[in-house]
Amino acid sequence: MEYLYVILFIFTILISLRGGRGRNVPLVLYYAIIGSFAIVSINLREHSPDINAYEVIFHSGEDRIEPIFMLLVEFCKRISNNVLVLVIFVMIISCSIKSVLFYKMSTYPLLSILIWVSNLFIMQETIAYRAALASALIFAAIYLKHSGKSLYAYVCIFIAFGFHFSSLIGLPLLFVSKEQTHKRFFLCFLLLSYVNYLTFKFDLFPFLNVLNHEGLRNLHSIYEDNEMANPLNMIQLANVCINLVLWSKIDLLKTRNQYAVVMLKMHTIGCSMFPLFFNYVTVAIRLADLLLLSSVIMYPLLTDCYRTRISRMLPIAIASILGYFTITTWFF
C-alpha cells in the first residue's frame, strides 16, 4: 500500500504539471483522487503510532477523552466491535468536509490537494484522527463565518472542541478580519516568538506546568524528542520563509482569494507555535497541526506571487519536496 500511495502522489503531480491546477479540473477527477488517497490511507494504519491507543479507547471506554468523540465511539461500537469502523467513519467525515471546502476556498483546488497529501494528510488522516476531524471543522467554521452564517460557525467550533480540546484555538480565528491585513502585528508576533526562543528562552506559559494530566505526560514522552517540534528544523524554517514571501505579496493575493488574509494570519500563528511553546512540545505539535492546514490554501497562491514560469512551478516543487520527506519518514 505504501507504493500505491507513492504512485497516486506522482499521478497527482503529473496532472498538475499538465495544467490541471485551477478549476478546469473535472469534479469527478478531483474527488476520485481524494477518494483514492483515503482508501489507501485506511490500509496504512499500521504506520500509525496512535492506533493501539485508539483500540484501547474503543474497547475500554476511556473517560479522559473528549465527550463528543466518545459519543461517536459508542455509536460505532453498536455497528461493529472493530476499531476500524471508527477509523473509517472519522476519515470519511474529515476527508469529505476538507475536500468540499478546499474546492470552495482554494483558487487552485488540485494544487491544494497536492499540498495536503504531501504533508499533513499522513500526519492527520492516518494518525491523529481526532485532530484531523477537528481541523476540518475549524476550516468549516471559518468558511461559514465569512459566508454570513456565524451561528453555524460557532456550532462547528463547539463540535470540534468536543473532538479535540486544542481546537478551542479556532474560536478567536472567527474574529480575524479578512479585509484588514494587520501585517506588522502578525510579522512582529512571529519575529518575537523566535527572538524569545533564540535569546531569552523565557517561559511564556508557566501555568501549563500545573496540567499534570496523565494523558498529557504520556503524550509529552512520545513527542519530547520529536525533531518535528524543533523550531529550527528544515521544514519549520521553510514554512517561515514561505510565510514571509506570502506576506510580501498579500495585497496581490487577497485579490486572488478572498480567504487569503485569514489563512495567512492562521498560518503565521501556526509557524509561531513551535518557538512559542518550546517547553511544551505536545501543545506545540497539536496546535501547529490544526493551524498549518491553512498552507493548503496559501501555498498554491505562490503561483500568483511572481509573473514567471518558475513561480507557477513553486507549489508543485514544494509539494514534491514535502512529499519526499513525508513518505521517507513514515514508510521507508
Tell me about this structure:
The chain has 332 residues and is mainly α. The chain has one domain (2-330). The protein is built from 18 helices and no strands. The chain starts with a helix and ends with a helix. The relative contact order is 0.13.
Number of domains: 1
What level of helicity do the residues show? over 70%
Order of helices and strands: HHHHHHHHHHHHHHHHHH
- Identify low-pLDDT runs: 212-223
Characterize the biggest β-sheet.
Answer: none
Distance N terminus to C terminus?
12 Å
Number of strands: 0
Percentage of β-strand residues: under 5%
- Overall form: globular
Q: What is the mean pLDDT?
A: 85
* Rg, alpha carbons: 19 Å
Total helical segments: 18
Structural class by SSE content? mainly alpha
Short description:
70% of the residues lie in helices and 0% in strands.
Give a quick set of tags describing it.
332 residues; mainly alpha
Ordered list of secondary-structure elements with their pairings:
Layout: H1 2-17, H2 27-42, H3 51-60, H4 67-79, H5 83-105, H6 109-118, H7 120-125, H8 129-145, H9 150-163, H10 170-173, H11 183-200, H12 214-223, H13 234-248, H14 250-256, H15 260-276, H16 281-291, H17 295-298, H18 309-330
